[in-house]
Design goal:
By secondary structure, the chain is an alpha+beta fold. About 40% of the residues lie in helices and about 15% in strands.
Length: about 200
Amino acid sequence: MKYHILFFILIASFAVSCKEKKAKATNKNMTMVVEEQKASENIYQFEVTDLYGDKFDFSSLKGKKIMVVNTASECGLTPQYADLQKLYETYKDKNFIIIGFPANNFGAQEPGSDQEIASFCKENYGVTFPMMSKISVKGDDMHEVYHFLTEKRKNGLENSEIAWNFQKYLLNEEGELVKVIEPKTLPTDASIISWIETN
């Protein structure tokens, strides 16, 4: 009789254990689904302000490949503006666009006002691709666009840090992050050209 009772207790314990494991697995799956949903964000959710004070809605870029780059006017990499402009002129009519975000986070190399930045870009490099109002791309005051670009839980690809001015983020025609390019890689690098030209 005692053995029967012990047997039933063991069976009951096993059943409870299985239920708990199943519940944990279900909760884990639900958490994964929620994380995947979070990671399904795209850049189209953002509306920002350009250098001239006008609103710029990223949802207007649906169907285009996008390069987002943080820029500075007094950096050793500032001549990349010329390469960015060349790239833009070559591919702007082929569903590609560049969006520049001036930032003063590195070496205080972008000290100017939006008006000063606009004049500098136009006069020195003939920049015609969209340039946004100056923001912060790191730290406590990081702009929400850069939270999206640098956090895997938001972009679904990877965590990254902005290493310096002129770091490039490539997004596909669905507004999803697909590649991070380090600052010293020129905008006209073969890997970037290949990405733009691949359907």
